[in-house]
Design goal:
This protein has 325 residues and is mainly alpha-helical. It is built from 13 helices and six strands. The strands form two sheets. It has a four-stranded parallel beta sheet, sandwiched between helices. Strands 3-4 form a two-stranded parallel ribbon. β1, α2 and β2 form a beta-alpha-beta unit. α12 crosses α13.
Length: 325
């Protein structure tokens, strides 16, 4: 019920042109439908992702730059590599995966608001070369645009006009997302909805995020009671309540609602999943009625394709394919 409550608060603030932050682009349409179920017409407010908000703020600055495309970004990092002496990394840099790994590392550094002078050794040198090449071309990458937006809200009075901000669906925040929320909280009302219950083992990893948010909230924290009774499958509700607990009361019968697999490594686990999929298909279940949910499709796509292709399982991926594929 916490998201429904957040949406009602958003509607109550429509006259102030609020901004609602949702986790993904696909959530925008879904949230719009939920809002229209509460109020038949919405003539104000914005709904978008963190990136949409970063773009909105960054492009309003006098120093706004164009953002590199993924292909341009690869060329920028390769030019940066070619301009530096790599010492012992020269042989590794000949392979395409080196540039990809460097870009992934740079993205993490930028999300954490780290500068090249915060680092030592070859990584600091390569990071500085990459940033210098972007400056030479007067371009930003996505992470630098996010950073500029957060800095602009913190330093420029006209960067945000006091519109309320609502956010949900985040179990953790990157450094730059945290910096933006912290800056916005000094300019307007910010409401964040988090899946968290104090004292529960399963939420220990979120305790630091919650402590940080609580320090900004200045005591204005509203806790909702768990709505476990609304979960249709009793085994799923029991698992949610008792996950990672040592002493667990008698569990309800599983009745096919849950299955657990344990395999050696990603490939072994996915082959077990594939065998389960084959059993479902052979029992008459249509392939389009089965969903596989991954933490990150980019990271799991290759082992998924290998495991499912080997077993002959028909599948489709909800993602964009590279031009060369």
């Amino acid at each position: 019920g916490k998201v429904q409550l957040l949406l009602r608060r958003y509607i109550e603030a429509l006259s102030e042109e609020p901004f609602l932050i949702v986790p993904n682009r696909s959530d925008v349409d879904r949230v719009e439908r939920r809002l229209l179920a509460i109020q038949p017409a919405l003539l104000a407010g914005w709904i978008g992702t963190f990136d949409d908000l970063f773009k909105l703020i960054a492009r309003g600055g006098d120093d706004a730059r164009a953002v590199v495309t993924p292909a341009q970004r690869v060329l920028v990092v390769r030019r940066a590599l070619a301009s530096r002496s790599l010492n012992g990394l020269g042989r590794s840099a000949r392979f395409g995966g080196f540039a990809d790994s460097l870009l992934a590392t740079v993205a993490e550094l930028e999300s954490g608001l780290l500068d090249p002078n915060d680092l030592e050794g070859e990584l600091g040198v390569l990071y500085a070369a990459y940033r210098a090449e972007l400056d030479r071309l007067r371009l930003w990458d996505e992470d630098l645009r996010r950073r500029r937006a957060a800095e602009r809200v913190g330093n420029e009075l006209d960067a945000w006009e006091g519109r309320p901000v609502f956010a949900y669906g985040f179990e953790d925040l990157t450094g730059v997302e945290w910096a933006l929320l912290q800056a916005l909280a000094g300019r307007s009302e910010v409401t964040v909805s988090m899946p968290y219950e104090p004292g529960r083992t399963v939420f220990v990893s979120l305790s630091r995020t919650m402590d940080d948010l609580a320090s900004l909230a200045d005591g204005r924290i509203e806790e909702l009671e768990p709505a476990v009774d609304e979960v249709r499958a009793a085994p799923l509700a029991h698992l949610e309540r008792t996950l990672f607990m040592e002493n667990v009361a008698d569990a309800p019968p599983i009745d096919g609602a849950l299955r657990f697999f344990e395999g050696a490594g990603a490939r072994g686990a996915l082959e077990l999943v594939g065998e389960e999929l084959l059993a479902l298909l052979r029992s008459g279940v249509a392939p389009e009625q089965i969903a596989i949910v991954c933490p990150s499709l980019e990271r799991w796509q290759a082992p998924l394709e290998t495991a499912l292709g080997t077993l002959g399982v028909p599948y489709a991926l909800e993602s964009r394919s590279r031009l060369d594929r």
